[in-house]
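Researcher: Before we compare anything, I want clean individual predictions. No alignment, no superposition, just each chain on its own. First chain goes here; please echo the sequence and then give the structure tokens.
Model: Echoing the first chain and its structure:
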Amino acid sequence: MTINVLVTGGAGFLAINTAKFFKAQAASVFGIGRSKDDSDLECYDRWIESSVTCKALLEFDVRFDLVVHCGGGSSVGYAQENPLEDFYKTVAGVAELLEFVKKNNPEAHVIYPSSPAVHGQQPDVPIDEDDEIKPVSVYGYHKEMAENLLICGHKLFGLKVSIIRFYSIYGVGLKKQLLWDACKKIVSSPSAVFWGDGNETRDWIHVDDAVGLIHFLFTISEPPLVVNGGGGASMTVRCVIELLERYLGVPPSSSFNGSAKAGDPKYYCAGQRVLKGLGWSPKVSIQDGLFDYVEWFKKNYG
């Protein structure tokens, strides 16, 4: 039987990869969001150019089996500078989606890609799903609000909800964030300078694994309410930059300015307790994933 999948924020990196995956599985895939001139929307059976509102979602006139809500703000810096706009995108968008699901499609499984930004500053140890929620940025606070709305929908209205706190998603085609910015800097400057001191850590998960986790949660009978989406191993930003330089064939010459960006936690590493209990683990190593990313970058932009 063909399943119906809705992907919101459908022009984004994770959203497009999710849509392509389910399309390859012979699902009917529907998308909604704000597209750009270079957005690849051919993976959608139907696309609606709109913010996520209950009214817009009703236009599909479809009963969805799965809703992957990729809509909402995606930048710590942008949220810090535009808190009201980010609130409408992130928090109000979830409220609109839940109203639609509760009234019109209560059997749908809603999967929400969230963020470890809800945990704020943490020591340099793996972060468990149950660790304290104490955001330090507008972005983190809004993600917490969105999560609470989803948990409310689950506990009070019986909606099937899964929240995945994705760490650093990357992969071929990503044209923003650290890897993209770093590759551009490294090839254009003999002595690129980066924020921080280089000892900040990040936990990387390849987009193929991120999509695989979404699919896995959709297929199991009792998915967790909240789960970390990460590789379970941290890597310093300095080490990432050195790997990029090596794969780009550039002598190591980058440096760090010692200044931290507002709202950026210093350490990120995803605890694997819940995922190990489910028997799921990522497949793509950071070394292989970064190599493929750099090869794509060199072919298209190097």
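Researcher: Okay. Second chain, same rules.
Model: Second chain and its structure:
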Amino acid sequence: MGHELCARVLSPGEWQGRTVVGLPWALDAGGTLRTVGYSSTFPGGFGERVVLQEAALVPVPEHVPAPVAALTEPLAVGFGNVARAAPPPGSGAVVIGAGPIGLGATAALVERGVAPVVVSEPSPRRRALAERFGAHVTVDPGAGDPFDVWSEASEPGQALTVLECSGKAGMFNTVLHRAPRSTKVLLIGACMTEDVFRPVVGIYKDITVTMCMAYPPEEFARTLGRIADGTVDAAALITGEVGLGGVGAALDTLRTPDDHVKVLVRPDVHGIGVHPPR
């Protein structure tokens, strides 16, 4: 873990001393692309030092605080995969999950002129953030079905893209059963367990599914640019801070994310508890 990071470069050369963010991808000695933080060869930002590829680095503007710049990566996953899918203006979208990735996707969809954008999220705090990021309608899935809400808000026959950003086991199967015919589905949230779905449902409905990992790399720098010019309020996502000794507490807190959106890990924070952001 720790692939969402902002760091100061220690290696000698033109980057030395600069504050950077970077695409969390690196080539190992055999030429295999690895994800920083998910590889024992390239551990992530929960340690004091991390290896990043020079080609993946993007300098952080001086006026952008490092803790805010660290939000570039998760927001870029949302922006980048929307750019990759390129839903046209006039089409609509349902976003499942309003964590940082889902919020980035929401802002990207609105930026492209996609409407309506319906965001499904159980946390009131995250639903409020989705509205700040431009969602036209938000829904608590415990109180209403996002696809019913979509049907009420959309025009007859309007094209739909569903962005599954929760990574929750069983959600893909639910999407297949509830989405209308010819829907495009982007699986962006990473379900880390085995999952079960019924393929024939998607086949009968001509649903197109894209499992999303890589996205246009230029979207990473563009996302930092949006943060820098204030188009995206990345600071609003930071709801808590921990030191390196509090990573376990942060992960436990986010298992039931009613109170938090993004807990920042800062080496200069002491103790093991979660603290309010500075």
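Researcher: What stands out in the second chain?
Model: The radius of gyration is 19 Å. Additionally, The chain has a mean pLDDT of 91.
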